Model the fold of this input.
Amino acid sequence: MTAVAPISAGSNGELIAARGVTKIYTQGKVEVPALRGVDLTVTSGEFVVLAGASGSGKSTLLNLVGALDHPTEGEIFVAGRDVTHLSRSQAAKFRLAELGFVFQAYNLVPVLTCYENAEYTLALAGLPRARRRALVVPLLERVGLGDLLDRKPHELSGGQQQRIAVVRAIASRPALVLADEPTANLDSETSGNLLDLMLELNEEKGTTFVFASHDPDLIARARRVVRLKDGRIDADETR
Amino acid sequence: MWKLAWRQLLRNRARSIITGTAIALAVLLFLMSLALGDGMYGKMMDAAERSAGGGVLIHAEGWWKTRESTRVLLDPAPVAAAAKGAPGVRALSERVVFEAVLTSAANEGFAAATLKGVDPEAEKPFNDLSRFLVKGTYLAGDDARTIVLGKKLTEDLSVDLGDRIVVRFTDAKGEESQALFRLGGVVATGSADIDRTVALVRLKTAMDVTHTDGGVTQIGVLGAKGLALDQLKGSLQRALGDRTQGLELLTWREAMPELVGFIEMDGNMNILFALIIFVVVAFGIANTFLMSVMERVRELGLLSALGVTPRRVGGLVLRETMLLALFAMGLGYALALAAHGYLSTHGLDYAQFIGNDFDVSGVIMDDLVIYTQINAPRWIFTGIAVFAMIVLSALYPAWRATRLDPSQAMRTYE
Done:
């Protein structure tokens, strides 16, 4: 069974440590820098928003921290582990064991039910069926989806789908959840409820959340806002 | 992962049904091709054995290769008696076979033919040409000098019933000789080779005119149904004992290896055509699954982002292929068994497609109702091979799935 125990911060309390991270995309013969020498440290238990306009590099930074991509230069440590040079397979195992992910849209596997989507990473990690149910059902009930367990994603609203994605991200109780524009396609009420849920988890479980977002409501409620502009950190504000 | 693979197949039902149907039909065609081929092969081998003159042919040593007129089995009676008593022997026929040149006593022209002295009754279990009689009688009546010729031979010689035929040959003493016959019957077998060369006379008459002094050139032996040729040959060798001195015993397969090769090549061609069908189907399957992967870039990227390793992503595509293959092949086998259930009892009449009879390398095939036969090991091997081919066809789409970059795939959301 793959370990699902939450990762712990490094010895100095740093959960994420990015040093001189540069990412350059190549489109044909044109090089497009997305990040330019970013340094960022996130400690355990933080609720951080990476804010900035489209193209500022916030999603790219989130992808690099989540080992979905490799930086062109620099290095990134998550809980003391260098994720910069992981192979695809190692990166997938790292994500399964250590992270929770929430994306902007199309978060769910269309052929799986609400419950099956929510328990998917636990099943992948090899948890027994009963244990999975014990972890997932209370969470789904908590986000108001307890009576929709057998629904397929296309039978749910956008907000309900995002709540399932959040449950899936936190079901294995990771210390770090990465969320890329999780409220972008939601109305303000649904978005607010989702934020309430994540803030509760942050406070109750100490789960660290790192968002990439330009949603003003989300930014307003974050405890730390890291603003990116043209691939560089423009401001880092802790409230 | 199996559950996910199964649901992916159900998700795009139309595509799965079309691809599955293509696999099932290809399997059906392949298996029916094998079953009919095996049925046809059995008939051809049987017909070839009868056309050759028996399962085992007994001659004076060296006669088969040289056809020298002096290599005669001089005292055939004890040999024939011993052979008749051998276990597994169903029928036996003595023959006198000489190469000859025929001319019409009245007309110009000549033709080469094989003069065969036969006992019409004894020949019936063998290649009984009386069933092809189109004119006159088949070595019947009081006239010992009656001769039956192939239809094309009568045309070449411009002769008709009652006409006199002069047959020239080298006799058993090695002397040039000739004999006069009267055309008593005409056969048309449908085989140009046979109809142009066959000249049949009574066995006793042939012995007299070729001066064999009661000897024969060939004894044909048919074994019991299902008895292997080698077993029949062994049985004859044991029964003949010391009498095999100066004799050659050849199975028809040994005597006519080129005919065996031709028939086997014909069977292999069937398999080759069926394989070509499958290669085409395999490309279709590869294309279908590649499309399926390309359509699901975002979804497969999501799986990867959630922690599914590339190997497992590729494994998902292979699982989908295997599930589809198993169900479709199951359907194909069920359809093939149903078709076999019908065709093994009712048969398929090839005469509807190719006429009433035809010949393969001189072997007359006049019973063209082919009954399917199941060769279980071949069907099982076919199943394994087809399954492997289908899985192989999905390897490239699966490999493409393993190469998906999750960050690129997730970017397609935007």
